[in-house]
């Protein structure tokens, strides 16, 4: 054998040439996070401090904490028993090798960003090919919601969970095709991670996964043997993933009845309060103002994203697609439409009747599902040029760059907050931001807690008290343990400064003693005899928690056992071509160029894609004002989405508030529609304007306060003034009221029908009398006049209605402003048909002949010239209506 014929060159593993592009996508998404600190988001800091609490528990030897004594102002809280902890576990794990917790936290966010681009690419590649998959990856990575979550909302647990969605779909679909070791392990661990990552995301995704796998099975299988070989692997992966997460979900589900979690479905947290509007889904992405605490970001898809998704949807009808591709695109289209529907008000009956989903709180969370399917459709847009080599790469570049540029306004967040992961910083954060237990509604307080103690159990300097009443010396405190010494002169029931919850055990001088919840406060109560005693309290596992651990451990062992039984990864042929490598290289250079341009030029040297309002101004506001509520708050702008709204509709009002100094109270805001009679006809109240307690408002920034005023169906179709203001909710004492300079016209819900048409004209003001309706009752004539103005009326006119006999003598009248004074003519909406009902008393024995109608000025009594349809003028400018002909 000749040595030359031997191929001794080692064969390197095949790497998809588009994977580096996916990595660049993730760098572009996460790049602002490389700055010191964290963004000033609504929830970001609480997730960071929760990670710190988990890490500190590890330092104390508690591997799976469920309670921490620092939480809830030092009274303790079972947060980790009910909130999925995967974000905190991964952050703590990275902190074992990285220098500080903040770096570890950001590393998890970077891996989440990589998940979005890489996992979406791998899942979509088998469906729409490499080029389509890279567009799908860009669409999923640069979805508008990514930037909202990363830099403005800060729900990082949800951000991590949504990044796992495509991994779950990818591994489970691959497992059906090839029940091998890697696919099985990936399916089990990706789904387990999702279950441990975010309760609501896992709950919403579960039915989607079941439906998707059902389609995979019925489309992919063609024989009993085919099902027999693969179905056990698929079902086994689902069961083992559920078992792996049992350490969390089983105690959370079984022990939730000890908590007040029901508050998450009521009041402010009711899903009915947070539906999106259809126009919001299609809204553009506006530039963000650096001087806004919460710059308005619509919950939108992004118009370019929707354009690509629409083109991809049409590809389902394209010739040449196989059944596998076609049903995937059809499934994605259905998933996008259904998820979008679930974010809109008509879906309320489903939210009310489907089990558990009411805990979602915000229907906009359905975007997690909507974006994965709309992104696949966006990738399918490339299928239209897949057979045209000269157009394929330009189409991919245009789609990818368009997706990146379309959300550039969100890629420049405000300066970050400096952070330190210390217990002192956490205690200060929880108290200063009014975030007890780091939850929004104190939903994990026990059912025994009716009234929370007023004073904190721990100070920012970590000075702690052991008892609510009485003196005690603290000996030791850990995340789930407390030891203190008391000296009693008589037998007492001690009220310990820790909330009671199943799992607490107590010892008095080494002897176990019973514990019980204190009345009202729900704190730990125990009986102690006179004398000096050492009392120890420890939070231990209940039987259901131990069983959950056992199930998870068993699931982990079975997963490894199945892996030993399954075959390993099958060798794959190299599939990349020179063309694919060339395309990926060009695309990588384009994306890298955008990243370099953004970091080294646009961000430091320009103010493109963002705003900076001057002090006292809000540039995004349609109407700039400076109206003060005393010396505390100013309204510096407002937006009225429309000055016209229909009965039963909704009026969108956006208020721009600025605190003039730091406020010591939390105020609620309101928008009221007030009629000319001074009556309140419609309103919207916000407990915390913009979801930000006013006591935390920064006077150097303004706050955007969104209101959606629901117009009752029986609201009179007239014009209303708009009054806004702030008030203290507990005392209902108002800080002040501001009347906006514009009014809002309510139109009838249905077109107005005119029984008798009788066109008469008042050309000086563009007013028409279109017709009338006349009925007679006992001693009463009811005349309905139908007015219309074809332009804005300059003044307010009175309507005269005179009932005369055959001698033209007035026998009754019903003069006054239109619509009982509710709709002055100067506020008439041009084109609107206005029903003006007049009730004319008729004395017995009189014989009415005509009704004379016209308009006049109240101060001068001058009548407005009235003309017939043929152009001739009415005598005395009085329109005549024949009573006998008009009566019904």
Describe this protein's structure.
β15 and β16 (680-686) form a beta hairpin. Strands 2-3-9-5-6 form a five-stranded antiparallel sheet, with no helix packed on it. It starts with 18 loop residues before the first helix and ends with a helix. The longest helix has 41 residues, at 101-141. Helix content is 36%, strand content 21%. α1 crosses α5 and α8 packs parallel to α10 (224-244).
Strand content: 15-25%
Question: In angstroms, what separates the terminal alpha carbons?
Answer: 116 Å
Strand count, sense and closure of the main sheet? 5 strands, antiparallel
Poorly predicted tracts of residues: 1-13
Whole-angstrom Rg: 34 Å
Count of DSSP E strands? 28
Oligomer: single chain
* Helix vs. strand class: alpha+beta
Number of helices: 21
Mean pLDDT: 92
- Share of helical residues: 25-40%
| Shape type | globular
Name the strands of the widest sheet in spatial order. Answer: 2-3-9-5-6
Any key phrases for this structure?
five-stranded mixed β-sheet; disordered N terminus; alpha+beta; 36% helix; 21 helices; single chain; globular; five-stranded antiparallel β-sheet; 888 residues
Record the SSE blueprint:
Blueprint: H1 19-30, H2 44-59, H3 79-82, H4 86-95, H5 101-141, H6 144-153, H7 156-177, H8 181-197, H9 199-220, H10 224-244, H11 246-254, H12 278-281, E1 288-289, H13 303-314, H14 323-341, H15 348-353, H16 367-380, H17 389-405, H18 423-432, E2 473-478, E3 481-488, E4 492-499, E5 504-508, E6 511-513, E7 516-517, E8 523-528, E9 531-539, H19 543-565, H20 578-605, E10 610-611, E11 623-629, E12 633-640, E13 644-646, E14 650-659, E15 668-674, E16 680-686, E17 702-710, E18 719-728, E19 733-747, E20 756-762, E21 767-777, E22 780-789, E23 798-804, E24 810-813, E25 834-841, E26 850-856, E27 867-868, E28 879-882, H21 883-886
Parallel strand pairs: 1-10, 13-19
Antiparallel strand pairs: 2-3, 3-9, 4-8, 5-6, 5-9, 7-8, 11-12, 12-14, 14-17, 15-16, 15-18, 18-19, 20-21, 20-27, 21-22, 22-25, 23-24, 23-26, 26-28
Helix pairs in contact: 1-5, 1-20, 2-4, 4-5, 5-7, 5-16, 5-17, 7-8, 7-9, 7-10, 8-9, 8-10, 8-19, 9-14, 10-19, 11-19, 13-16, 14-16, 17-20
